[in-house]
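hey so u asked for the seq, here:
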Amino acid sequence: MKEIVCFGEVLWDILPTGKKLGGAPLNVALRAQWFGNKASVISSIGKDNIGKELTAEMESHSANLDHIQVSKNFETSQVLVHLDKNGSATYEIKMPCAWDDIVLSKNDLDAVKKADAFIYGSLVARSNTSRQTLFELLNNSKFNVFDVNLRPPHYSQKIIESLMQLADFIKFNDDEIFEICANMGCKDKSLEESIRFISERTNTKQICVTLGEDGAALFHNNEFYYNKGYKITVADTVGAGDSFLACLISKLVNNASPQEAIDFACVTGALVASKDGANPIITIEEVVNMMQTS
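ran it, structure tokens below
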């Protein structure tokens, strides 16, 4: 069993169908746990009723609450999710909220030092307090996985580049890598050239780019691996990328081949997108069946 620690936001996603447990780091941790790892998330909630409801919902998903702080300063996060006619999501994210106030603790530092993978995103770095905590943890972890999540206006190019420099593995979507490359002076390049550009500029040997319905590309130790995606009827895209990342990293830290890892991750992400919310129940049988019949 591998240990995976995630850092960042836990929140309520307010969807047209009601509120659902969410936040990319929490989604990743829950799916990594489903895959058989010991997973936890370092975050913060408010001293309010919706914070109590959030931890109760996390408990119902068997989530580890050992690293959930309670902020004295800010409320539990709620994010308004808008879905277009194709189920693609955009988000209204209030600031400040409790996960902007994650402080460094020995308990969290010890967990990160022991972890086989430490997964973090860019959204949580929008505030000074959580950003300072994140950089301290990054300097004490063994394998850093950066999940780029560009949510305007909650990021800056300077901070993104700093977070990439500390990463051993970076995950983008295609829009994100092209935007970041352009800002770094790499324009009009192919996907593969953009990936190599980021790899060289940040000394990162492992990079993954998700391509929506067209699957994903994985750059692993100077080799490219691809999956062309799986055809599904989209319910919503909330959390699909998070489950993709959880399964990809789970496979890789458990010594699966890069091709097996990206194939399994693409199936899992597709299945999540075919169901409501970020953390639907899916089974290994569903994954295997889709891989065999597609």
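The chain has ten helices and 13 strands. The chain has a mean pLDDT of 94.
lmk if thats what u needed
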